[in-house]
């Protein structure tokens, strides 16, 4: 699964790079999203695999802080990129005449840069806040990685509860803010699609949004279960399970969803395979 996640996202990036027909804002954002998926997987999964195969499960303070920073950075970057992809679909469908002007290559590169910068700032800020706490007692983390909620349970001191609430509030606000803007984009998109007279035209227009919508549902579905699920007697075990599923399956599903639901990308991947493995028949 780890290799499939890497190869699937690398295949999407290579296909977009080679196919001139895919040099559009939508696929530029998809390429940035695949890069985010790869880096997120590389930052977290190898350590998880090592711990599964080893009998000595330990991690240094610096490695734990680094793991949390990269998890936050790529997680928030992923959300920001999904929000930008929703904005891209809004501009393409609701303002097609101004699309090429407002979504130029320079503007798209600037939006991607802002997403990465925003994710990095959020990751650095939250990591510094968490690791400025005092940790006492047991140093055993009930998780497969340095997950923020599991780590906060080890902290002690008067400020621990307020920092915990602050970290959760920042995460939920950022995620829900991105989700609100995505939903708002699709409200205008659906309104514009309903004004298209032909059923075929409505179907063709909406089909350009299906892959993005599916990824949004998967991403925010798992994230909401982790951060918004009410606590219970087995909440620690269920949180670990949900975080594991989110970490492993979301990057795994993304290339599958985009390659199967996006006809243009699927055909481009087939052409890439054909040119690579059957060059004589081209």
Automatic annotation (TrEMBL):
UniProt key word Magnesium: no
Membrane topology: Multi-pass membrane protein
Highest taxon of the lineage: Eukaryota
Listed GO CC annotations: plasma membrane
Gene3D superfamilies registered for this protein in UniProt: Rhodopsin 7-helix transmembrane proteins
Keyword Secreted: no
SUPFAM superfamilies in UniProt: Family A G protein-coupled receptor-like (SSF81321)
Pfam families: 7tm_4
Cellular localization per UniProt: Cell membrane
InterPro entries recorded: GPCR_Rhodpsn, GPCR_Rhodpsn_7TM, Olfact_rcpt
Entry keyword set: Cell membrane, Disulfide bond, G-protein coupled receptor, Membrane, Olfaction, Receptor, Sensory transduction, Transducer, Transmembrane, Transmembrane helix
GO molecular function, a single term: G protein-coupled receptor activity
PROSITE patterns per UniProt: G_PROTEIN_RECEP_F1_2
Biological role stated in the UniProt entry: Putative odorant or sperm cell receptor. Odorant receptor.
Name this protein carries in UniProt: Olfactory receptor 10H3-like
Gene responsible for this protein: LOC105074557
